[in-house]
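Hi Y.,

Following your request, here is the sequence exactly as I used it, all 370 residues.
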Amino acid sequence: MAGIYFHIPFCKRICAYCDFYKSGDLRRMGAVAEAMHRELDARRDYLRGEPLHTRYFGGGTPSLCPPELLGGLLEHTARLFDCSQVEETTLEANPDDLTPEYLAALRRLGIDRLSIGVQSFDDDCLRLLNRRHTAAQAVEAILNARRAGFGNLTLDLIFGIPGFGGDSLHRTLDIALETGVEHISAYHLTVESNTAFGRRMAQGRFTPVDETVSEEEFLEVHDRLTAAGYEHYEVSNFARPGFRARHNAAYWHGVRYLGIGPAAHSFDGGERHWNPSSVERYIEGAPAENETLTDRDRYNEYVMTRLRTAEGIDLGETADLFGSARAARIPEAVRPWTESGTVEIRGSRVAVPPRRMLLSDAVIETLFET
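Below is the corresponding structure, written out as tokens. Let me know if you'd prefer a different format.
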């Protein structure tokens, strides 16, 4: 089954670390929504009749959208695609947008999962990140969501922030665990050149944490969350039993998905498509770009996505998809990693143990075909 993603690129405030395509001009929201409806009609056959199992509003800040805009997109999608088997409908949200009234409206629309961008429960850290909410507002948003009947909540957190490890990270994890949410995504801060942090770093005014600190904080996140009953099932994702992120799993397992909106990406099983990263060009109807994946591209993506998950690579599946010769090369290629304990081979599975997943990118490079 397939998934559909709606990219809502609008933000009231630009976070210091964000590298996603976004726009601060909220006046264009209505025009973008109209263009998204046109794109839905134009791409109604993209998924080749496969039923949808997930719907996802990402951004940007989708919680800036009025309920009628979100509802219009969901209704239009239901007219064009088989939504009878949808298992999960997610909205990414900023804590200060989640008022009781707004949450009640989301529930009426059929949105059943919220991904709340908390990032930290330390107000000084939130100011550094240029977030527009406080720690208290984040806690209140979670309580409001529970009162509204949401039984599937995920929190986004960021670690590896200079000056905010140690006690600050410990307190953030304490509060996150106290909330009892079903899912936590914990990302290591990455400093990209076209962000506020990247510009400060180029000027010598911002220094990322070193590798030792990265590993210490990664292990603290892993140890605290797994000890509390969360499964570390992907490099940055932790879930209570039965609450893995189903939409994101589509990206990791090669499932077809349709992306609607500026900068949204799609995959039809053989080609990747992406819309222009421009509100203006998207409204004007600029066509998507595309790339046909070669056999080598598909193999490299398979290796990259599978080795970021707890299940890892299944050698039998690899042989079926890419040939027995490739599957046979994998155990030998990762031998140095198995000897160091960074990779485990159990039966037909080759995987990076969750506690060592910070090194997964290095392992993946070992297997890439260039």
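The longest helix spans residues 211-227.

Thanks again,
Q.
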